[in-house]
Fold this sequence. Notes:
Layout: E1 2-14, H1 21-34, E2 49-56, H2 59-79, E3 82-89
Antiparallel strand pairs: 1-2, 1-3
Helix pairs in contact: 1-2
Amino acid sequence: xxxxxxxxxxxxxxxxxxxxxxxxxxxxxxxxxxxxxxxxxxxxxxxxxxxxxxxxxxxxxxxxxxxxxxxxxxxxxxxxxxxxxxxxxxxxxxxx
Length: 96
């Protein structure tokens, strides 16, 4: 099992200014549910940039986990009339 740290930039945006409070709800769900097993750093909570640690067997497994995570986040955001913009980086100096 390999460990890889990735940086995830995540913007959660409401589809309307009248439901902007839903952005915080979605972010709280993402941080407490989806990032629970990814060693979320306390200093990342509430921000737009996260450093997460994935356990994987190979590169394809890592990519599948990231894709599944982003799909779940997008689905949750959609259920609260929000959408996401995300960018995932795997800096060389973050590899464990």
